């Protein structure tokens, strides 16, 4: 039986999405057939309750120098990180000569706010092109992966950090033991390691199955993060639920005994118990709903195609790789996917090979239906594309159930 990457306890597989491509590597048409595939299967640890993938994709494949995702592409996320920066500048970074380190800084969406406040800072990110964008804004970035040797190098050059922060990155890192060892080596006495990631409770409750793809190696819950922190000499001292990405949890950890946990930790643990988030039966039920959603989506797209309706996709997201490849959806059902990221345009979706076109193509002319892959930005997108709805267009969503808006 496979064992847990965290506690080495037994894990049980509850869903197999089959052969999947690396989700954020969008090939040029001439590169079709060169993609790397792996088995995307997820399992539940009976001991520490960590939900995790069974097969790891190498970090160099997932996060190459030209990794295309840019955090600043969403107005909602820009607003979110401005608020996060304001919070930390008033709390953890309010002291003299505070030092801030960010793991997975991407294009500097958060880092730039800290820099603008005059706080000493350093971003760490392996994606060289994204790091160049952050650097062009004046922020300091170390191009590479964060792990214990990196952290010790930073400490030797910069001194201890009062805050290490990461958003939508820690769950990507299979070798998480080295990340916590690095945090322990780099943090100042009383400092905190804070990270935000998609919340397992929301994924299960709303059947957000497309949140499962290569980059999301772990799906965190409060209990599993508590066990994770304890294993590496840390303590979970606070949690805060956030609305971004369909439901995110902010976890605040510190070295064991250095800070007192808030009541929120116990409250969320009790909520997870009530949700039965630690029970195997919950994942069996989730798997059944995933299968129903995929079958329903395929049936809808087939019906619309047979009726002569034109369907395009909206948002060439990482999430879409899981949906398209598991459901077997290709250009015969979706003529193209509209995406505003320049690095993805004129390329095709991994595995399914649906053409990706600029945002302008969505309006020339409007399709009958748009399959919204970027559903976590639905409110922002639908407000932006209100003329599509006014022209008679309809949105298709597949979570929590397949439905049309």
From TrEMBL:
C-methyltransferase domain: residues covered: 243-400
Protein's UniProt keywords contain Hydrolase: no
Domain Methyltransferase putative zinc binding: 4-63
Superkingdom of this protein's organism: Bacteria
MF-aspect GO terms: methyltransferase activity
Keyword terms: Methyltransferase, Transferase
GO biological process annotation, one example: antibiotic biosynthetic process
A Pfam entry, by short name: Methyltransf_23
PANTHER family linked: BLL5978 PROTEIN, TRANS-ACONITATE 2-METHYLTRANSFERASE-RELATED
Listed name of the protein: Class I SAM-dependent methyltransferase
């Amino acid at each position: 039986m496979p064992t847990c990457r965290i506690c080495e306890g037994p894990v049980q597989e509850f869903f197999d999405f089959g052969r999947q491509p690396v989700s954020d590597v969008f090939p040029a048409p001439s590169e079709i057939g060169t993609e790397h595939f792996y088995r995307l299967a997820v399992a539940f640890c009976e001991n520490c309750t960590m939900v995790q993938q069974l097969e790891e994709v190498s970090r160099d494949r997932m996060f190459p120098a030209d990794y295309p995702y840019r955090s600043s592409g969403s107005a909602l996320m820009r607003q979110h990180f401005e608020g996060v920066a304001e919070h930390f500048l008033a709390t953890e970074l309010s002291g003299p000569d505070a030092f801030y380190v960010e793991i997975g800084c991407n294009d500097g969406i958060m880092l730039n706010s800290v820099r603008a406040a005059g706080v000493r800072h350093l971003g760490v990110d392996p994606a060289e092109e994204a790091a160049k964008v952050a650097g062009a804004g004046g922020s300091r970035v170390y191009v590479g992966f964060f792990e214990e040797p990196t952290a010790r190098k930073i400490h030797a050059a910069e001194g201890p950090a009062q805050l290490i922060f990461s958003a939508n990155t820690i769950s990507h890192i299979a070798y998480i033991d080295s990340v916590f060892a690095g945090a322990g080596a780099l943090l100042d006495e009383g400092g905190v390691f804070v990270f935000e990631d998609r919340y397992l409770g929301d994924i299960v409750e709303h059947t957000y199955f497309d949140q499962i793809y290569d980059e999301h190696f772990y799906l965190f819950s409060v209990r599993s993060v508590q066990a994770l922190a304890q294993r590496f000499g840390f303590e979970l001292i606070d949690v805060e639920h956030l609305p971004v990405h369909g439901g995110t949890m902010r976890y605040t950890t510190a070295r064991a005994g250095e800070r007192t946990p808030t009541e929120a930790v116990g409250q969320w643990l009790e909520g997870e118990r009530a949700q039965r988030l630690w029970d195997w039966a919950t994942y069996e039920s989730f798997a059944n709903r995933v299968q129903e959603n995929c079958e329903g989506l395929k049936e809808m797209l087939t019906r619309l195609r047979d009726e002569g309706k034109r369907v395009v996709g909206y948002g060439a997201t990482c999430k879409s790789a899981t949906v398209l490849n598991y459901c077997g959806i290709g250009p015969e059902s979706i003529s193209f996917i509209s995406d505003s990221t320049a690095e993805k345009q004129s390329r095709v979706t991994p595995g399914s090979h649906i053409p990706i076109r600029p945002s302008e193509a969505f309006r020339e002319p409007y399709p009958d239906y748009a399959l919204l892959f970027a559903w976590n930005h639905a409110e922002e997108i639908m407000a932006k594309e209100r003329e599509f709805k006014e022209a008679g267009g309809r949105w298709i969503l597949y979570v929590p159930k397949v439905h049309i808006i």
